[in-house]
Amino acid sequence: MTSTLEEREAVIEAIKRHSNPDGTVPNRLVRPAADRLGLSEKQIRRYLRDGVQRRCAFIPDDSHIDALYAAVGNILGAYRLCVEQGFITTKEQDPKHGIGDRQFRRGFERYVDAAIVAGASDGWSGFVARRAYGTKFVPHKGHTYASDSSPLDLLCLDKKGGQVIDLWETNLVDEWSRFALVVATTNGHPDTNVAIAVFAAGINGYDADDGTPLGGIPDHVLTDNGGEYKNQAVTTGLVRCGFKLVVDGDDEESGQAIKRKFTEPESGWQNGRVERFNQTMQRGFSATLPGYVDSRLETFERLKKRDYWKANPHLLLTRDQVDALLQRWLMKYNFETPHHGLDGELKGMTPFEAWQADDRVLTRPDEKTLRLAMLSGDTRIVDKGKVRAFSTKYYSAELDGLHGRSVEVRYLPGRTEQVEVFYMGQRLCTALREDLLTDTYHSNLTVRRDKQTEAHLAHSLSGERLKTKRANKQLEELGFDRDDLPAEPEETFAMQAAITRARKSKAPVATAEEHAVLASLLPNDDIDEEFIA
Asked: Sorting pLDDT into bands at 50, 70 and 90, what band is 243?
């Protein structure tokens, strides 16, 4: 419960009138006063001693700003100049309405344009640079996608019982709605492959549960000058994602045109919205998990915490567990948490509601780009037609013949509904998450698996017979009698039935009558005599 200054003044004056002869107020009055105002007893005692002071809101005017420029951006120097010139009164001159140096600083931070403050210390270049950020033009969703990579301030295990690693995250955020399209984690600083995959995931987009299309091709992509972003490989990867890059002066009539923008060196505030998202993730997600090491701590305290977690790895989560929790947090951030940093009428909406507020539909590239710009994942062992990733199972009929083989699982960050499986460097199939498999898919999967098993049995029998014949031939050449040689393997009843079903499952051959019926349906000019025969 909060109380106003008027309520505090009234309560303090009331209990003062019932003070003891020595001027002290008994606890029987202090305790209910503290409960009534929602304060501590210590605060009530301070009010009784010093009185309830009304904090004067200091709003700088032109004379204060002139003093700041005369002090070359030094706030304390500007405060002293204002005192000397009589523009403000100090706490010593007026304890109730005077202004201290901290209040003077807060006034500039709250009520004066940051570009004007920057101009006092950095001149015209600082004013223009800060002004460019303050008036950033983002009129609709998809106008600018901002991306950045940052440490999660979190230690975890690379796998169960594995090594302790530092997690980094790479994200892609729509600046208009603050909707986080993609968040990918990496072991250490991300590389070019991660940057390409993050762009591909956001630009290819996906559909929300209610069918709202999310993502698409933006007008601009904003990043810093990091090596994972500013290289030819990323540019080539973006082109593969389905759009062309344009520079100033090129024709922008095509809906597939996009511009790349980079922040100035050591000017992280130019990408301030995504930098703020990084802080939100670190404070709202990482800080709730074991292994968190606050980067704001002093170096000694930070190293001490890191040593503690490294000495107790059994207390840490695995990377798969962190990824699963991160996706859950991301859903809550996008779809449930109101965002008060949005502009205008969007203020207080969730990022998803802000995205829906604009009825603009962004263009999506061809689905083949999901494989062209795929992030390399981990190596997995196929187990009875499935592979494991993100602590869940992914199924595909093409995996049945690779039981026990090692395959590479690739995926787009934040897109856990399916994974791409590569075998010996070639794409093999798309495996679906087990909760997305339909009854029809399950039945088809079972039928295909049975057929592959039957064909394997028939092939195994033929192979064993061939091996036996070759071995017998070598034994005969060495002088062994035929009667002493091992007999060829015989078919069991189950194997005979499997071979019969495998032979019957072959596609039937069309008869001449069926060819004739088909030929009668074709124009005479298209009939091929060899085809009819």
From this structure: low
